[in-house]
Structure formats: C-alpha cells, structure tokens
Design goal:
single chain; mainly alpha; 2 strands; 68% helix; elongated
Length: 81
Amino acid sequence: STACFSMERLAFGVITRVSEQPRIDDNSESSAIKPATPSTNIVYASHALGGCLGGGIAGFLFQGHPFAGAFLLTPLMLCAG
C-alpha cells in the first residue's frame, strides 16, 4: 500500500538524520557531518516502522482497527525490505 511505503520513506529519513555521526574530512579543515551509508539495520528498522505506521493508517481507515492493519502489513513490509 502507498501508505506503508510513504511512511517507510519518512521513517528512513528520520532514522538516518538521528543516526548521523560527525566526521572530520581529511581534506577539509572544518568538521562536516556526512550521512553514513545505510546499514541493513537501518533499512529493516525503517521498513518495520513504515509497516506499523502505514498499516495503522490503512487499518484505521478501512476497518476502524489500526492494530489489525499494523499487524498485517508490518511482516509484508519486512519481506519487502
């Protein structure tokens, strides 16, 4: 569902912003924050969070039960990761 993948992209952006480490570039005199390459843990975490949030939205809109949608779509998002 589109809700899951948009929530996954949002979660990926937030997780990578939070997990940025300051690095000192050898060619530069000032320290610059560069995003690290995403590890598999970050990818799976963003897919799990996206499945929970997007599934909650879809479950609430279509069935009135957000947890049912989250429990259904989180494993699907983890398989897609």
